[in-house]
């Protein structure tokens, strides 16, 4: 956190006051050791004028101004070095001139006339110390400036990295939205030739889902309950199309409903199961969505009893936009703390399990839903879907 101007100048004055006090105490002890003790206040005149007044209140602000106005950079360091060398000599002359009017106060026993001799005495006695002090203060100032610039660059880089990550996540989500929309419009087009009222109902549900999507624009995480609500809206559209051929069971542990999950993470996975597991068969099919909390992680399992992987698809590395984007989003949001496992049970079907760190919103929503809910009349899940 940056210091305020008052705090910074107060700290500078305090440092020079401390230096003046230490120097005065040192001289006080020295005179006492010589057997010529003098009052501390009398000795303090010279150090406090030289350090606290001249450097604390006059020279240090001037040096800081010159360092900020003419910083030494890699591209210009020879010219700036010579420039600050000239500044340090000029400051030594200026301080020597400023000490002349204060000479009677610092040395009340001296009655010599003030003028060239006094100036020459101060400059040749204290000028080198003043020039050295200039470079000491300048080095501290430059170090502070370079450190602050490095911190600012680090903060800017971190902010830019965060913005790029959010932009990447938003781009991934925007790939899902048209993908989902085009598939739904295709379903509506098919229904228009079969059942106009059903198509009208799908259009109404689609408008509600689009409204929810727009309301959550820019939101990366929602509660599992909100994600399930969105998923139920999508499944209602698919049930209009598949009717009794589609059975969906949800086995949700109540404590997981408040857990935060990536926005729109389940819909593309369920859509994948509908397209590749339900639509490709003439008979009924089932999909199971299960959530559990295990060792500080939230585990979400999605399983269908479709035909599973075809012989022409030996690899699980390419499953279209939905699964690929899900994998990328999880990696972006949770890094190595997440897992996305894709399984093809020997009995058939398809499984996806997501594991992410369990965390809740600052104000968890009350849990009133039952642990197990069904979106339509219960149809026993075929034996090919393991329990």
Give an overview in words:
The protein has a 6-stranded mixed sheet with strand order 6-7-5-4-2-8. The protein has helices at 5-33, 40-69, 77-99, 103-106, 116-192, 196-215, 224-242, 267-278, 320-334; strands spanning 221-223, 246-252, 260-262, 285-294, 297-304, 339-343, 350-357, 372-374. The longest helix is centred in the middle third of the chain and has 77 residues, at 116-192. The chain is α+β, with helices and mostly antiparallel strands. The relative contact order is 0.07. It is built from 9 helices and 8 strands. Helix 1 (5-33) packs antiparallel against helix 2 (40-69), helix 2 runs antiparallel to helix 3 and helix 8 (267-278) runs antiparallel to helix 9 (320-334). Residues 314-318 and 367-387 have low confidence and may be disordered. Strand 4 (285-294) and strand 5 form a beta hairpin.
Topology, element by element:
Layout: H1 5-33, H2 40-69, H3 77-99, H4 103-106, H5 116-192, H6 196-215, E1 221-223, H7 224-242, E2 246-252, E3 260-262, H8 267-278, E4 285-294, E5 297-304, H9 320-334, E6 339-343, E7 350-357, E8 372-374
Parallel strand pairs: 2-4
Antiparallel strand pairs: 1-3, 2-8, 4-5, 5-7, 6-7
For this entry, give a set of tags:
387 residues; Heat Shock Protein 90; six-stranded mixed beta sheet; two-stranded antiparallel ribbon; 8 strands; rod-shaped; disordered C terminus
